[in-house]
Write a structure and sequence with these properties.
The protein has 205 residues and is an alpha+beta fold. The chain has seven helices and four strands, in the order ααααββαββαα. The N and C termini lie far apart (63 Å).
Amino acid sequence: QGTSPLCITTWPSALLQLPSLLEGMGVCQWEAIAAYAADRDLEGPERDATEEARYDAQKQWLSSRGQAPHEYVLRIVAWDEACMALEPCLVPYYLEAGMEHWLLWFNPERYLPVGDLPPEDQIREALQRFLGPAPDPEWVMWYENLPSKRSVPAVRHLHVFLRLSAAPPPVGAASRMLRQAWEGRSEWLAEERRQRGIRSELPLA
């Protein structure tokens, strides 16, 4: 039977005893992500003010169209044959340079909002399917947010963090292809570009 994975990595015990490196909503370091994944009493990573504003704007835009966030996800995400998808996070956490924030989505047609997610070996297989090389804790880690922190609870997902500077070259190539495809079908990114174009055409006061 599957479990709800928190972080599918093995870290030295000394690392797991690190104090929180995330206080004050500063930039989140790789070691801090590992520490938080192992100990949920620590402060978790957060978005900066710019990304929070973008998230609020997207939710208002969806509401104006009569859509809920989970409906947008189900329509836009590129599901594979296993009802999973690895996509960039639209509004990523505030991370140190060289890190990227992604989401591994699970289609509710197969993975209900409550219940178990696939076990660790299937998560690893999924990431390898999307990225190429077998996952290694030097360049990838993941966890599921606590229920109180899930902004799209109707569609289960893991937060996946990539450290591309430490990853094999095929990971960078695969992530760029995935991001390019995602950018091409993201209705919200297209709306942001449209709004920026309108603002740039406004006369100066």
